[in-house]
Write a structure and sequence with these properties.
single chain, alpha+beta, Alpha-Beta Plaits, two-stranded antiparallel ribbon, 3 helices, 31% helix, globular
């Protein structure tokens, strides 16, 4: 059985320079790379992905590092599915229901 303490989430948060045309292109390319890797956008500069193990998170961290644009700041957070369940989300003033983790068949 899969445990909510072993299943993981990875979040990539970033602030990238976008003043020059080349910087905007690099930021867009980085976002598109995250989407191609299976991340989904949570907020404009916050992308998240469900992972089935710590080794999978390590792989994605390496891939993110390989694709870092020049300049800016990128943070990678990782936490368990049980911790993810405790996220409180608001849209405007309305509290949103918690997101459910993907079904097991979607993991592999």
């Amino acid at each position: 059985m899969l445990s909510g303490y072993r299943l993981m989430w990875i979040i990539v948060m970033f602030d990238l320079p976008v003043v020059e045309k080349a910087e905007r292109k690099a930021a867009t390319d980085f976002r598109n790379t995250l989407l191609d890797m299976g991340f989904e956008m949570s907020q404009f500069s916050v992308y998240m992905r469900f992972c089935s193990s710590q080794s999978q998170i390590d792989t994605y961290c390496t891939q993110v590092e390989r694709n870092l644009p020049v300049g800016g700041r990128v943070n990678i957070l990782q936490f368990t599915d049980k911790q993810y369940e405790r996220i409180i989300t608001f849209s405007g003033k309305a509290k949103q229901p918690s997101k459910k983790p993907p079904e097991q068949y979607e993991l592999f």
